[in-house]
Design a protein that fits this description.
alpha+beta, five-stranded mixed beta barrel, globular, RNA-binding
Length: about 500
RNA sequence: UCCUCAGUAGCUCAGCUGGUUAGAGCAUCUGACUGUUAAUCAGAGGGUCGCUGGUUCAAGUCCAGCCUGAGGAGCCA
């Protein structure tokens, strides 16, 4: 069994003092060093090092570009031309898994600081060049989507999923550091009253048609969750600050580059907080995550930045982004988000050129929801930065959002509004949707009645308003949409390992 | 679900107003070379032109239906 270099014996200093024969065990069992460490730790130069990974390219029967996923960069392995048997050389093919031990030496050629002079090498897993689908060349994202099980072996997807990790980890970090508790809302839920979209039915029945739900496993109708928010509110009204972070399921027949049937959502919920606190939290989280990725994933971002620039070059000039990927991340991290009310947004849109030239496909008038084209104009043309829109008309928002009164943020004399807030990002659209929740029992019941939501189904939710209710607020952040923004990937299916979309659940 | 576009070698594509045996680059394989950077050079193999039906002397090319994918829209995160 491999030994992890956590205890005695495997430190860099030990490796150096032990000389070239040092290994954490016999060669076959030696724990390989991550290539990320091999390439960056200058103290390793001159040491004997074991690495393992997958062959990216093999040049001249002598040079292996080896990648182990720990970094986007490859380690060059150099074989001894005389001392390597032909049978072994023939097995070093694209994506073969190999393990090698040798001396890490400064590289005489340009292209890499160090390289590994191989003393010992084994092929752990062969890879047949004739049938391995991913070649050392540029592939289309569409093709790689069909090879989703192998696409992680490409630079692009390696970078994307390392960054996805950094974002996920950063979410826990940010909330933990700010006194939040990670709250696990259920995946299987019984309430279908949330109105967040079509749901996937969960059942053990062979056929649900004509069968009484009481005969089912849970003795009632159950579905996969579309949101952990209502449960998070229960947590927040006791623990103070909580967040959920888990998979979410929507059975909508959505076929777009920004919708998935299974996606990951982050839903913080804070007690004793109003809409402004909510906005501050949302903006703070976004900025923290961007800064973290800029710091922790500089190499991957540099690669994606170049990729993004190449993609932009393909577009007609009018559609090109005004900023590069990294440039825009820095800009968003360093500048305050624009905060406007829905009523102001309508006014800006009605004063806009596209409105006056009748370029908008959908009407702009108070009471109607903002369409994608309107959000795009606000974010990408008018403000050219993230925008938080508050105070939407009550009629187009969910029942749990707090009804605004005179003096409340976003209140309008044009009609009733609620304390909602949507964070709109360039290129992505709505990345966060949140609100201050209706904490007043009577108002909440009124809204539920108006929207035909039976109180019976949400008795537990209403209880929080009966017993020690407090102002509270929260939001939902779509993880994949955020990762899209950070990586510059145009299609949401390319930022989740195994995308689920209508008609597609391979892998 | 709606609108638009696309489907030709493993991949990316060319194939004109229908007309001999369907092409290129890359990849793969074989050989050469051996300090290379997606190495280079030479050669070889590789096709149900998405599927079904129709029009025609003749269909990769025209028509219809279906399937799959992409872009946009709606729903939303």
């Amino acid at each position: 069994m491999p030994r992890w270099p956590s205890g005695e014996g495997c430190s860099v200093a030990d490796a150096r003092s032990a000389g070239p024969s040092f290994l954490c065990g016999p060669f076959e069992h030696a724990m390989p060093k991550p290539i990320r460490e091999v390439l960056t730790n200058e103290a390793l130069t001159g040491a004997t090092v074991t690495v393992a990974g997958w062959v990216r390219t093999f040049r001249n029967d002598r040079f292996i570009a080896l990648n182990d996923g720990s970094t986007i960069h490859n380690l060059q392995l150099v074989l001894d031309p005389e001392g390597t048997p032909r049978e072994l050389v023939d097995r070093i093919t694209t994506s073969a898994a190999v393990k090698a031990t040798g001396e890490l030496v400064p590289s005489p050629a340009s292209g890499q600081r160090v390289e590994l002079q191989v003393k010992e090498l084994i092929v752990l897993g062969d890879s047949d060049g004739e049938t391995y689908p991913i070649q050392p060349k540029k592939h289309s994202l569409e093709f790689l989507r069909e090879q989703a099980h192998l696409r992680f072996r490409t630079n692009t997807f390696g970078a994307v999923f390392r960054i996805r990790h950094q974002v996920s980890f950063g979410i826990h970090e940010y909330f933990h550091d700010n006194g939040f508790f990670y709250f696990h809302s259920p995946i299987i839920t019984a309430s279908d009253a949330e109105g967040a979209g079509e749901m996937f039915r969960v059942t053990t029945l062979e056929d649900t048609k004509g069968t009484d739900p009481s005969e089912d496993f849970f003795e009632r109708v159950t579905n996969l969750t579309v949101s952990g928010q209502l449960e998070a509110e229960l947590g927040a009204t006791a623990l103070g600050r909580v967040y959920t972070f888990g998979p979410t399921f929507r059975a909508e027949n959505s076929n777009t580059a920004r919708h998935l049937a299974e996606f990951w959502m982050i839903e913080p919920e804070i007690a004793f907080a109003d809409l402004k606190d909510d906005m501050d939290l949302a903006e703070g989280l976004c900025k923290h995550l961007i800064r973290r990725v800029l710091e922790q994933s500089a190499d991957d971002l540099a690669f994606l930045d170049k990729r993004y620039a190449d993609e932009e070059k393909q577009k007609p000039e009018a559609q090109r982004s005004s900023m590069g990927l990294i440039e825009r991340l820095r800009f968003v991290a360093d500048n305050p988000f624009e905060r406007i009310t829905y009523t102001e947004a309508i006014r800006i849109l009605q004063d806009s050129k596209p409105y006056k030239k009748k370029k908008f496909q959908f009407p702009v008038e108070w009471g109607r929801d903002l369409q994608s084209e309107h959000e795009r104009y606000l974010v990408e043309k008018h403000f050219n930065k993230p925008v938080i829109v508050t105070g939407y008309p009550a009629a187009i928002k969910a029942f749990y959002m707090r009804m605004n009164g005179p003096g409340d943020l976003g209140h309008s004399d044009q009609g009733p509004t609620v304390a909602a807030m949507d964070v709109l990002f360039p290129g992505i659209g709505e990345i966060i949707g949140g609100s201050q929740r209706e904490e007043r029992l009577e108002q909440l019941k009124e809204r539920m009645a108006a929207m035909d939501i039976p109180e019976k189904e949400l008795w537990w939710y209403l209880d929080t308003r009966k017993f020690g209710t407090v102002p509270h607020a929260g939001f939902g952040l779509g993880l994949e949409r955020f990762v899209q923004f950070v990586t510059g990937m145009g299609n949401i299916r390319d930022v989740i390992p195994f995308p689920r979309t209508p008609g597609s659940a391979e892998f």
